[in-house]
Specification:
cytoplasm; flat; protein biosynthesis; 27 helices; Gly-tRNA-synth_heterodimer; alpha+beta; ligase; about 700 residues; 5 domains; Glycine--tRNA ligase beta subunit
Length: about 700
């Protein structure tokens, strides 16, 4: 007989951003618990609101699956003592399996007889097993934890009630001093306590108390009401998916409403108004059909439509206060100049172990110019890059960014345009921060892209130099994200950028202005940085359509540019199904293994020391492959190495590399080292799985 099981954890209000990951975690823990305890089920339904996390397990088995199995014990010779009685080892084995020594039998395995027993464990009733759900509840982990009362126990918020029902039967357990029951709580203001008679009644019981327990149903209600409001007023209501999810997790019974603000505030940039509404107040903003911002907003009330006009009025007053501040700062900020703001940055610390923001901009300017020249920017682009790099943090000391910190960069672009900077310089103010997440949008302009790479390069070098290196999950300065950004921008623009090139840029900046590196060692932890960025390259390029070993091999050359790693991995991936791929890689890796044994490489190959034709053949084949090798694309590079396969095999058939004659040996190792250097274009070929 199949059953339905309900678990509800009632809490004080949970932060909205924690609700969805928490209910997902609870469902995963419940699924693991049921699997570990051999309780089969059909599916798990998830319910969540700011005040509860709940699951309903559908089609739960009546009892655990029975266990019937054969267990292997010690060897027969160990099972008896010297007097022919059962040894302690045999007795302990039988006891551990829940049987007696009388149940032991022997069976041969690979010529040796071992002790075996057959054991049968009858499954427990589901109602008994489910008492262990207590551990599922107590083992939950959250990004923020708190204690309450006199307990040491930590949870996301204090637990106020627990419901645990198998159909209509109470499954008893307790968490701290709180026992499970059948009573849940309705909406904090519109509902009351309600008894859940059966697990099947759960959603309906709560709905009667003005709680929509299903998050997807709340979302559907909100979007439906928004659509109706938009149609009624001929609006476009901009529904951001992340904000929608947050709003869904802020309410238990949603009612959408619209409010307005004075049109005079439309003189403030749209980005400021949208931030005030969306980020600060959790409102959806409104535009006309052409995308022009309108003086209206849409929000969601946690309740019904009664006295809604009071709610609208209150929200309008709160927003007006925010917009009045924004208008004031916008007007006041324009009374200064960019030069005024840059001067202030001389007294603003970036980090006390690194220096000021002004010093950072000067370092970044030098790094950016070096990269710009290496990447072939025009004189005009270099001029724009220099201007942008010397002012790009100026908006940090404006009143607007001081009040709305999330607008850093955005206000930089807006103010730069107002102060007469050209479009590329202004855009770089915003693009320097991009990408703002692992998968975030990338800079579009050349100037903004190089400035972003230069800034991130400086930050990584500075923090690594100061010993503030990410470890485990600890990365307070988001250096992993910044390294990801460098890699993603370089690949997006198809620039030939590598960690060694970035290191050259840092050294160039140091040589030009050593005074800017008083607290930063430009050589510090270079190997750590090399591997740190290489890990991000792997992370960016690791895709389902790319063999993992091909990427690991290509990424083994952490001296290569990021685009070279990508192309090398793609080439190896493409040829992995070739009939002779295994033979080709085996021949090349044999070369590299022997080349690695060379402790003395000569400055050239002495052909007079060749002792057989295969040596001359290999050298001729090498010279042919090496001709313009660096200029070849990866298809041609692979073909050049592939064409060496047969001549390499013939060479090893006829040549003893580690000859007794020291000169001959070193000459052969030198030749193999030259050939091995060509394979480095594809990284570490020994990482390929060719078995």
């Amino acid at each position: 007989m199949a059953h339905n099981y309900l678990l509800e954890i009632g809490l004080e209000e949970i932060p909205a951003h924690v609700v969805t990951p928490s209910i997902n975690q609870l469902a995963e823990r419940m699924a693991s618990f049921l699997k570990e305890n051999r309780l089969s089920y059909e599916t798990i339904e998830k319910y969540s609101t700011p005040r509860r996390l709940a699951l309903k397990v559908i089609g739960l088995a009546d009892k655990q699956e029975d266990i019937s199995e054969v267990a292997k014990g010690p060897a027969k010779k160990i099972a008896y003592d010297k007097d022919g009685n059962w040894s302690k080892a045999a007795q302990g084995f039988a006891r551990g399996q829940g049987v007696s020594v009388d149940d032991i039998f022997f069976q041969e395995l690979k010529g040796v007889e071992y002790v075996y027993v057959k054991k049968f464990i009858a499954g427990q009733k589901a109602s008994d097993v489910l008492k262990g759900v207590k551990d599922v509840v107590m083992d939950m982990k959250f990004p923020t934890m708190m204690r309450w009362g006199t307990n040491d126990f930590e949870y996301v918020r204090p637990i106020r009630w627990l419901v645990s029902l198998l159909d209509d039967e109470l499954v008893s357990f307790d968490v701290l001093d709180l026992a499970t029951g059948k009573t849940s709580q309705g909406h904090r203001f519109l509902g009351q306590a309600v008894e859940i008679a059966s697990a099947d009644d759960y959603p309906a019981c709560l709905k009667a108390q003005k709680v929509i327990a299903d998050a997807s149903e709340r979302q559907a209600m909100i979007t439906s009401q928004i659509d109706a409001l938009a149609a009624e007023n001929d609006w476009q209501i901009m529904v951001d998916p992340d904000l929608l999810e947050e709003v869904v997790n802020l309410v238990e019974y949603p009612t959408v409403f619209a409010g307005s603000f004075d049109e005079k505030y439309l003189a403030v940039p749209d980005a400021v108004l949208i931030t005030s509404m969306k980020d600060n107040q959790r409102y959806f903003y409104v535009t006309d059909k052409n995308g022009k911002l309108l003086p209206h907003f849409v929000s969601v009330r946690n309740g019904n439509s009664e006295y809604l006009e009071n709610v609208v009025s209150g929200n309008e007053k709160v927003l007006t206060a925010r917009l009045e501040d924004a208008k004031f700062f916008y007007e006041e900020d324009q009374k200064q100049t960019i030069a005024d703001y840059v001067e202030r940055l001389k007294k603003v610390m970036f980090h006390d172990k690194i220096g000021t923001i002004y010093e950072k901009m000067e370092r970044v300017s030098l790094i950016a110019q070096f990269l710009g020249q290496k990447l072939g920017l025009s004189a005009e682009q270099l001029a724009d890059l220099k201007r942008a790099s010397l002012i790009y943090k100026f908006d940090l000391v404006t009143g607007m960014v001081g009040e709305f910190s999330e607008l850093q960069g955005v206000m930089g672009e807006i103010y730069a345009k107002l102060f007469g900077e050209n479009a590329d310089v202004a855009a770089a103010m915003r693009e320097e921060y991009m990408p703002t997440s692992a998968e975030g949008a990338l800079p579009q302009t050349v100037v903004g892209s190089i400035l972003s790479i230069a800034d991130k390069t400086d930050s990584i070098q500075a923090f690594f130099s100061a010993g503030m290196i990410p470890s485990g999950s600890n990365d307070p300065y988001a250096l992993r994200r910044q390294a990801l950004g460098i890699v993603r921008i370089s690949l997006d623009k198809e620039w030939d950028i590598s960690v060694p090139l970035l290191h050259e840029a840092v050294k160039f900046a140091y040589e030009q202005r050593p005074d800017l590196y008083a607290k930063i060692n430009p050589e510090a932890n270079y190997d750590l940085i090399l591997n740190f960025v290489s890990d991000r390259v792997f992370q960016v390029l690791n895709r389902k359509d790319l063999r993992r070993d091909a990427l690991e091999a290509a990424n083994g050359n952490n001296q290569a540019s990021f685009i070279a790693v990508k192309e090398a991995a793609a080439s190896l991936n493409e040829h992995a199904l070739d009939a002779d791929f295994k033979e080709t890689i085996e021949a090349l890796t044999r070369v590299t293994r022997l080349a690695n044994k060379a402790d003395h490489v000569m400055d050239h190959v002495d052909q007079s020391l060749f002792e057989n034709d295969s040596e001359a053949d290999l050298f001729a084949a090498y010279q042919k492959a090496a001709a313009d090798f660096a200029q070849k694309d990866y298809a041609a590079k692979y073909q050049a190495l592939h064409d060496l396969k047969d001549v390499i095999s013939a060479y090893f058939d006829e040549t003893m590399v580690m000859a007794k004659d020291e000169q001959v040996k070193n000459n052969r190792l030198t030749q193999l080292s030259l050939l091995a250097d060509l394979t480095k274009a594809f990284g570490s070929l020994d990482k390929l799985n060719i078995k």
